Amino acid sequence: MSLPRQSRALVIVNTEFRGSNGEELLGARRGAKREAEKLSRMLSRLNYQVTLAHNKTAEEIEELYQREGGRQHGRFFVSVISSHGDEGLVFGCDAQPLKLSRVFSSGNCPALAQIPKIFFIQACRGRELDPGVMVECDGGEPEPGCCSGYLSIPPQTAVMFACSPGYVAFLNLCGSMFLQALLKVLEGEERHLALNRLLTRVTGEVALRCQARGTYQGCKEMPCFITNLRQEVFPFAVPLE
After folding, report:
1. Which residues are in the Caspase family p10 domain (predicted)?
2. Which H helix or E strand runs over 204?
3. 10 Å Cβ neighbour count for 232?
């Protein structure tokens, strides 16, 4: 009996942004590379075949997703993009923008069309700072965040953003609020939850337990997600190796 195909994961992290003559175009993202490596190792422990790509141009990022469309996939496809960004786009290491709609549309190819595709986007979606608000509640899980209405995604796709539309996503030498929260959930028993509940746990971890330090002391971040999945899925519900 042949073994089932292994699910695949693609992790892309951009940390240096330079022009053709070597000048720095956008700020360096210190802490992002080590965080992406940790995520890659965690996904490998969760039985994903992981490709980790560092400092790719906008064109190269799109080519990586097109390449995934020609590969043999298992039950799921998971991808993480960690870079500078703005609403609806991320930047390549050449500081050129890439529309996220082009990234998500890679899932329309035959190899990926029928399987659940899950994207995690660690990038700013604007320049606004979220000072946070004090709330009172009676307990329970926080509600999932919202997403831009105009951003459409293909069927069988879920996308989670580090922050709400128009706002910045924080990163420091230890990593980002968002991906650190994702790592914490994947390391714990929450990884056995259905995806929508797992993502809600990540949202709650960031929104209720994290805040910026240093220059932006006290500022908050609110992850949000959108999904076109047609059924509950459990992409990380395996024993850790």
Report:
1. 175-237
2. helix 195-209
3. 11
pLDDT value, residue 133: 42
Q: For residue 121, what are its two tokens? A: 């986007």
Domain 8-129+149-228, architecture per CATH: 3-Layer(aba) Sandwich (3.40)
- In this structure, are residues 95 and 55 in contact, taking their beta carbons and an 8 Å threshold? no
Which DSSP letter does residue 191 get?
Answer: G
The full 3-state SS of 133-170, as one line of letters, equals CCCCCCCCCCCCCCCCCCCCCCCCEEEEECCCCEECCC
Q: What is the pLDDT of residues 178-206, one digit of tens each?
A: 899 999 999 999 999 999 999 999 988 88
CA distance 160 to 155: 15
- Give every CB contact of residue 191 below 8 A, 6+ residues apart in sequence: 46, 185, 198, 236, 237
Show the tokens assigned to 89: 């786009």
For residues 117-129, b (16+ Cβ closer than 10 Å) or e, as one string? bbbbbbbbbeeee
Looking at the chain, the whole-number percentage of residues with pLDDT higher than 70 is: 81
- In the chain, what is the straight-line distance between the N-terminal and C-terminal CA atoms, in Å? 23
Span 201-230, mean pLDDT? 73
Q: Do 216 and 170 form a contact (C-beta atoms < 8 A)?
A: yes
Which amino acid, residue 81?
I
**Residue 195 DSSP class:** H
